[in-house]
Amino acid sequence: MKLTNINHIFFDLDHTLWDFDKNSELAFREIFANQKLEFDIDEFLEAYVPINFRYWELYRNNSVSKEALRYGRLKESFDALKFETLDSTINEIADDYIKYLPNNNHLLEGSVEVLDYLSKNYMLHIITNGFEEIQQTKMRNSGIHEYFRSITTSEDAGVKKPHPQIFKKALEKGGALPWNSVMIGDNLEADIIGAANYGLKPILIDPANKFPEHDYLRIEKLKELLIYL
Question: Which domain of life is it from (predicted)?
Fold first, then answer.
């Protein structure tokens, strides 16, 4: 069933369009090879992924700074693997990760096809909690930057999703109104509940069925957006 009276579509970026997990793994592989750190990358990622997720929740809730996030997620991951390294090395890896991450360009399946289709009928925008200095680079390097009329980051807005101010800022930048806008993202609290509370129509992308109990539109793959838009 198609959503009606929609003119604007707002997307989250990481885990929604941009394949964060794959691109992050590639960045770490290159960094660890350059650092000559010898341990199993899969074991590292098994430890790192949930720790990184937890740190992003803390960052979203203003419980840690950006600097604490960058250092702490690596420090705790190395500690979990009982891998001893200097703080200076951790800080160097943290800096390299921000440099290397946007150099990888993998998108989630169907991203370009869906953006190409939707851009013919809607104005497209980005709302992201990701760091200002790398989000636009990610989009340019992956070839999707030109699809979007506006890009609103949490650093630009001064608050993070799900705070209503970031949605207010994004709508103003995009020339949109809540009632004629859709928000698409992978995080139930930040993207979906945050958008719904501000009056946008949300669609959750949830390929692993992490959020089985909620009342919002849900898709497993981006191509399913075409059912509603």
Answer: Bacteria
